[in-house]
């Protein structure tokens, strides 16, 4: 199950400073990932914490499905929301299984159900249950700890998942791997996920939609491709960086811009699911300006140029 999350004119003002979050309105559709991105201090964490009421808004409301969070008992609310933070917060004196089982135990599940759920979740996040269940957090790598953190947040099958810079402490290679895993988990569980990052690449990779914040305000809320094609202003363009076109080509698939025209008989083939970046490299490698798409159709170099302007 997933629930839509609706921010309605939400403001948080801490005393004596400009609002940390300033009249934020946006909807995260059920079962989608919103990536909240912006520089340090722009209000991302405050935005997340207002969803599970670790912080109370000064104005506006957040609605989960049909229910305003301000009117839900905090205990019920937190049960509906998984929360993952940067330094995981695994309890060091508890085994992996015990860490994952915390919420199910609070909910009074029986032993057999808890054990089955722990094994199911470990498998889901890519850790073999037999070899990881009884280990302690300190014996795991950063990436493995982060996976346990995700498993723990999913334990009671909450419809909403909040993730605050969950991969910020990981090295770049582990980070990409864990990002891919999150996407593959999401294909199976279809939660509504709000993920905070200060890294635009991560936002583009993970978000069905990306929300760019600056100084408490929402600057742009759009799909990754739209953000890359039409950054609203110089601030958004700067967050994307100068390799905007490469990012765009790596985000779009061959299938999204190819034509149904048959390709010439002798040209190299490319998969429909390949990125346009891969297709472009193929063109450069082979010196051909058109490729055959596996299963029918073709991709011409002019399709790449059209794709980059939308
Ligand atoms: N408890 C607090 N008291 C006062 N100011 C706060 C508090 N929490 C956050 N802020 C301020 O609110 C702004 C947004 O903070 P935060 O949401 O943590 O930003 P981000 O997560 O984007 O780095 C910052 O200016 C920060 O200093
Ligand atoms: Mg933060």
Explain the overall architecture.
- The protein is 40% helix and 21% strand.
- The strands form three sheets. Strands 6-7-8-3-9-10 form a six-stranded mixed beta sheet, sandwiched between helices. Strands 2-1-4-5 form a four-stranded antiparallel beta sheet, covered by helices on one side. It has a three-stranded mixed beta sheet with strand order 11-12-13.
- It is built from 15 helices and 13 strands.
- It has two domains: 5-242, P-loop containing nucleotide triphosphate hydrolases (Rossmann fold); 252-309, CBS-domain (Roll), CATH 3.10.580.10.
- By secondary structure, the protein is of the alpha/beta class.
- Magnesium ion is lined by residues 44-45.
- Adenosine-5'-diphosphate binds next to helix 1.
- Spans of 5+ residues with little confidence (pLDDT < 50)? none
Total individual domains: 2
The outline comes out as globular
Rg from alpha-carbon coordinates: 22 Å
| Count of individual beta strands | 13
CATH homolog superfamily of the largest domain: P-loop containing nucleotide triphosphate hydrolases
Helix content: 40-55%
Strand % is: 15-25%
**SSE order in H/E notation?**
EEEHEEHEHHHHHEHEHEEHHHHEHEEH
Q: Name the average pLDDT.
A: 92
Side by side, the strands of the main sheet go 6-7-8-3-9-10
CATH class of the largest domain: Alpha Beta
How many strands, what sense, and barrel or not for the largest sheet?
A: 6 strands, mixed
Structural class: alpha/beta
> Which small compounds were modeled alongside the protein?
adenosine-5'-diphosphate, magnesium ion
Spatial gap, N to C terminus = 34 Å
Which second-level CATH architecture of the largest domain applies? 3-Layer(aba) Sandwich
CATH fold assignment of the largest domain: Rossmann fold
- Total number of helices: 15
């Amino acid at each position: 199950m997933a629930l839509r999350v609706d921010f309605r004119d939400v403001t948080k003002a801490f005393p004596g400073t400009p609002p940390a979050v300033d009249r934020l309105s946006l909807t995260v559709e059920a079962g989608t990932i919103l990536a909240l991105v912006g520089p340090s201090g722009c209000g991302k964490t405050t935005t997340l914490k207002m969803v599970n009421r670790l912080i109370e808004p000064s104005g506006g409301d957040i609605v989960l499905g049909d229910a305003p969070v301000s009117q839900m008992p905090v205990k019920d609310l937190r049960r509906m929301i998984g929360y993952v933070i940067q330094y995981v917060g695994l309890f060091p004196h508890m085994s992996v299984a015990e860490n994952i089982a915390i919420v199910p135990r609070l909910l009074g599940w029986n032993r057999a159900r808890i054990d089955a759920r722990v094994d199911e979740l470990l498998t889901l996040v890519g850790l073999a249950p037999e070899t990881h269940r009884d280990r302690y957090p300190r014996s795991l790598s950063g990436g493995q700890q982060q996976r346990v953190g995700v498993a723990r947040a999913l334990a009671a099958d909450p419809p909403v998942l909040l993730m605050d810079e969950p991969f910020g402490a990981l090295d770049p290679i582990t980070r990409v791997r864990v990002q891919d895993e999150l996407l593959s988990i999401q294909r199976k569980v279809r939660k509504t996920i709000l993920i905070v990052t200060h890294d635009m690449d991560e936002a583009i990779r993970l978000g069905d939609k990306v929300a760019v914040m600056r100084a408490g305000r929402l600057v742009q809320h759009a799909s990754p491709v739209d953000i890359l094609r039409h950054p609203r202003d110089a601030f958004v363009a700067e967050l994307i960086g100068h390799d905007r076109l490469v990012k765009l080509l790596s985000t779009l698939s061959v299938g999204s811009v190819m034509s149904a025209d048959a390709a010439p008989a002798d040209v190299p083939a490319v998969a429909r699911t390949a990125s346009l970046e891969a297709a472009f490299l193929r063109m450069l490698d082979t010196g051909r300006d058109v490729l055959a798409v596996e299963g029918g159709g073709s991709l011409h170099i002019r399709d790449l140029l059209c794709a980059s302007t939308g």
